[in-house]
């Protein structure tokens, strides 16, 4: 697994367990912060295709280090290396600019645009497909 993974707050997160098993895997145990995860006891957790942990919806409590151990008829496999999961809030508008502004050539124009998110989003303005850098 990658050493870290970013998943979106209030959306769906996917955490894959890298399993190659022969004979096939019969079960899988997920861990969060070195504690077994009882998936059936969490309303927002489920398994997809037997090995990918689905978190829906993602909450801030879902941050942590996740790992997994596969099981087959031959016994228990090796615990995966942990992946640090960071929960981040997707960008969203707090104040949207209007779609049209009409002013006389000498009049001042103010076009407010405010967004939030984690990490904090940058705002880029474009005029007729020309990017305008704001400093």
Automatic annotation (TrEMBL):
Residues 1-68, 91-135 form the Ig-like domain. The keyword Metal-binding does not apply. It comes from the Eukaryota. Signal peptide: none annotated. It holds the Pfam family Ig_3. The keyword NAD does not apply. PROSITE patterns: IG_LIKE. Keywords: Immunoglobulin domain. InterPro entries: Ig-like_dom, Ig-like_dom_sf, Ig-like_fold, Ig_sub. Transmembrane segments: none annotated. This is Ig-like domain-containing protein. It comes from Helobdella robusta. The lineage of its organism: Eukaryota, Metazoa, Spiralia, Lophotrochozoa, Annelida. The gene is 20208260.
